[in-house]
DNA sequence: CGAAGGCTTGAGACCGCTCAAGACCCGTGG
DNA sequence: CCACGGGTCTTGAGCGGTCTCAAGCCTTCG
């Protein structure tokens, strides 16, 4: 693989690879392909046959389905450690989402057939991927629960509570338009919901910075 | 395993098990547990730690999230061959859905730790589970696409087109209330959407029986 | 044949969407 | 460093698709 030594060293301690022997690691790094994406660059688009399974090493990737008039439905924001591109494991399946880098990103890519071989040669790799896919299914379940059972303001409150905070301040990690789509809302509705929470004294909003004044009341909204 | 010989024989030719040797099959059948469910019986409920991965052999299982006032959000209808209960693969995770049999059902269950061992001993089993989980993720993506991008009538049309037909007649396989929930609709809205399609001459509805008069126009609605 | 549950139909309300315009923010180049 | 410009976000007004609540009907099954 076209991979610098320092990257390999970092990978060796990554959860995905640290449960296996050195030779198995080397073999994976040989069949794997290192990929770098610039901000806004597409990894694949709906309808393409990417044929590869990806591991996100750094950066953020947005999985979305394109819709009319430049709109889109955001399905997932992926973070380092996430495994995706599972259509590669299904013979002759085309990608059903777009995959776009939201910032400079590094990935590791495996041909679908290599993955199936890797599963037999490196059991711990198979276990990691299984765990990861299971995690994805659970996350999707939770997302479906939220969008179908909660109101707009509730979804926004839930999302805010999930963001990492320093002190009581959180930062919206992506464009509000994209977050709104992920929550199943129009940008206008997302904005209005934030305003509503602010009017109720639960938060303050300035740009992408959100101050959480009353996390307990936000949590109580979700009942 | 407490499993009749004839069931074992049927399993031996099942896609999940036919890519492995006889001894590997026998081992799986030994660590696996055979489960039978009566109609309406629950396999597990939200909040429980089922700890097992299931393979549905016959019957149908409904995965849903309970909501207020006896309501529920149906996430998936499972059919024979489907693999589920992936929270078993995540240590200390509780089930986030209910799993209820919609009719008499037979399943094979594996303890989470046994699955992880099986992955190392029986690679083809690991591959099958990976394929199945990938399939599930894709299906969930499609469902999210439909519910967030299509109108009520469009979702109903899409659902009808996916049902198996004999001649031009399809049969709704579950209670309309449950199908409505799967599509993200209230029962009333589902009913009205069916009436609308009937009024437009695309279908006829009598109870659970739906006659598709014009599949092309139904398909054209989805654009 | 009767009862219970599921489905349909109607009327009305409301939440979120659409369309449109203006404000703000941030990155860029001078 | 500042001014500019494009893109993003906010705000307003009005609409409409879906939901809610409430009866009544139909089917099915005991």
From TrEMBL, chains A, B:
Domain of life: Bacteria
Cyclic nucleotide-binding domain span: 16-136
Keywords of this entry: DNA-binding, Transcription, Transcription regulation
Protein name, entry field: Crp/Fnr family transcriptional regulator
The keyword Transcription belongs to this UniProt entry's keyword annotation: yes
Pfam families: cNMP_binding (PF00027), HTH_Crp_2 (PF13545)
Naturally occurring in which organism (per UniProt): Orrella daihaiensis
UniProt keyword DNA-binding, yes or no: yes
All copies of domain HTH crp-type, residue ranges: 150-216
């Amino acid at each position: 693989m076209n991979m610098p030594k320092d990257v390999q060293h970092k990978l060796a301690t990554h959860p995905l690879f640290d449960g296996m022997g050195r030779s198995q690691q080397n073999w994976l790094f040989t069949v794997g392909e290192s990929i770098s994406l610039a901000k806004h660059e597409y990894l694949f688009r709906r309808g393409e046959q990417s044929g590869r399974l990806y591991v996100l090493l750094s950066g953020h990737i947005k999985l979305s389905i394109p819709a009319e008039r430049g709109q889109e439905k955001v399905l997932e924001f992926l973070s380092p450690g996430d495994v995706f591109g599972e259509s590669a494991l299904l013979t002759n399946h085309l990608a059903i989402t777009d995959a776009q880098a939201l910032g400079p990103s590094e990935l590791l890519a495996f041909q679908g057939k290599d993955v199936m071989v890797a599963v037999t040669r490196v059991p711990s790799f198979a276990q990691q991927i299984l765990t990861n896919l299971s995690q994805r299914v659970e996350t999707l379940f939770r997302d479906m629960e939220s969008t179908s059972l909660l109101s707009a303001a509730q979804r926004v409150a839930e999302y805010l509570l999930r963001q990492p905070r320093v002190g009581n301040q959180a930062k919206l990690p992506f464009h509000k338009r994209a977050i709104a789509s992920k929550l199943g809302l129009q940008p206008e509705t997302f904005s209005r919901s934030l305003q509503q929470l602010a009017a109720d004294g639960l938060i303050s909003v300035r740009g992408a910075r959100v101050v959480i004044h009353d996390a307990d009341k936000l949590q109580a909204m979700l009942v």
